[in-house]
Specification:
The protein is an alpha/beta fold. The protein folds into two domains: 182 residues, 3-Layer(aba) Sandwich (Rossmann fold), CATH 3.40.50.720; 103 residues, UDP-galactose 4-epimerase, domain 1 (Alpha-Beta Complex). Helices cover 36% and strands 21% of the residues. The chain has eleven helices and 13 strands. The strands form three sheets. A seven-stranded parallel sheet has the order 3-2-1-4-5-6-11, sandwiched between helices. The protein has a four-stranded mixed sheet with strand order 8-7-10-12. Strands 9-13 form a two-stranded parallel sheet. Helix 1 links the parallel strand 1 and strand 2. Helix 6 packs parallel to helix 8. It is globular and about 60 Å long. The relative contact order is 0.15. The structure holds NADP nicotinamide-adenine-dinucleotide phosphate (NAP). NADP nicotinamide-adenine-dinucleotide phosphate (NAP) binds next to helix 1 and strand 7.
């Protein structure tokens, strides 16, 4: 397939680009800088210059494409206004195409709110983290648009070696600082390795019916305290004391969206396993941390 991706240089997007190129798809990707274009070139994707903040400038330049995968987000700016404007321009342009392109929209685990001991599935009503509530009407538009084949993927918390959501733990442990945990060490995160998640995007692209949503969770819920201590141990901390950071402090540092790190959640990836044949391979994050010699994968 000829696939156009938004966010192809990101944590999720780069893994997806590599996975799809490896499966023989032809990749085109939006690049907002020369550095992003060079990264895409290295991954054998053709860069298309443009910014999600100004979609009209590049939408008309898209040639024949069979699918679009949207994984772009700038967490520093007005995510809601940017995404709404992007979709206002992109959806009608895709809907006007004769071949009914596939469109995969990226939601996220934080749309399900804190679940406690329950395990959320795709049938669980959304209770979004306020900073990401704007995503719900956006993904509903994608699923309702009959002129495209809309699919939504909700990634769990994404890690890759010492990177992604494990990055803060790894950096603190490597520098000999107490490993920071937001809220409480009992908080559970649903987890997925970026390579497993990329495999799910590829399967959804190739096999999913339109109108479907899939949760990309390889591990339903894993205590952040255990992850943080695993990093402390690996870097030889004399004691494994953690630094508990308040939700307000993390929001002040990164923005309101970062409150999601305090959500105690469990999510199931069973639907993707059952319907798409997804077989995530990274199921033991604690063991991986212990065995790793460091760095992103
Ligand atoms: N990471 C997770 O654990 C997780 C979990 C659930 C859901 N999600 C969702 O998944 C999506 C991607 O997350 P991520 O972690 O992969 O993010 P990321 O690593 O920060 O990557 C963001 C991507 O978006 C691109 N981008 C940002 N602003 C842009 C702009 N104005 N114009 C063009 N491209 C732009 C970046 O390009 P540059 O190379 O130019 O910076 C990069 O490729 C987000 O919507 C996020 O909410 C993430």
């Amino acid at each position: 397939m000829r696939v156009f991706v938004l966010g192809g240089t990101g944590l999720i997007g780069a893994a997806v680009v590599r996975q799809l190129v490896g499966r023989g798809h032809e990749l085109f990707a939006l690049a907002r800088s020369d550095a992003s274009a060079a990264k895409l070139d290295q991954m054998a994707a053709t860069p298309i210059a443009g910014n999600i903040e100004a979609p009209e400038a590049w939408i008309a330049k898209l040639g024949r494409i069979d699918a679009v995968i949207h994984m772009a987000c700038d967490f520093n700016t007005d995510m809601e206004a940017i995404d709404r404007r992007l979709m206002d321009a992109l959806l009608p342009a895709l809907a006007a195409r004769l071949q009914r392109p596939r469109f995969i929209y990226t939601g996220g685990c934080w749309l399900y709110g804190a679940t406690g001991n329950a395990i959320a599935s795709e049938r669980t009503p959304f209770r979004p983290l306020p900073a990401f509530a704007w995503m719900v009407p956006q993904l509903e538009r994608v699923l309702a648009c009959k002129e495209i084949r809309g699919i939504v993927i909700h990634p769990a918390m994404v890690y890759a070696g010492d990177g992604g959501v494990f990055g803060r733990f790894a950096r603190a442990a490597a520098e000999g600082r107490a490993v920071p945990v937001v809220g409480s060490e009992a908080v559970r995160w649903p987890l997925v390795h970026s390579e497993d998640l990329a495999d799910l995007y590829a399967l959804a692209l190739e096999r999913s019916a339109s109108g479907e949503s899939y949760i990309g969770a390889a591990v339903d819920g894993f205590s952040v305290g255990r992850i943080a201590r695993a990093f402390a141990r690996r870097f030889g901390a004399r004691n494994e004391a953690l630094e508990i950071i308040s939700e307000d402090a993390i929001a002040a540092e990164f923005g309101e969206w970062a409150r999601g790190r305090a959500l105690d959640q469990q999510l199931s990836g069973d639907k993707a396993r059952r319907e798409l044949g997804w077989v995530p391979r990274h199921l033991d994050p604690e063991g991986e941390i212990a065995r790793s010699s460091g760095g992103p994968d």
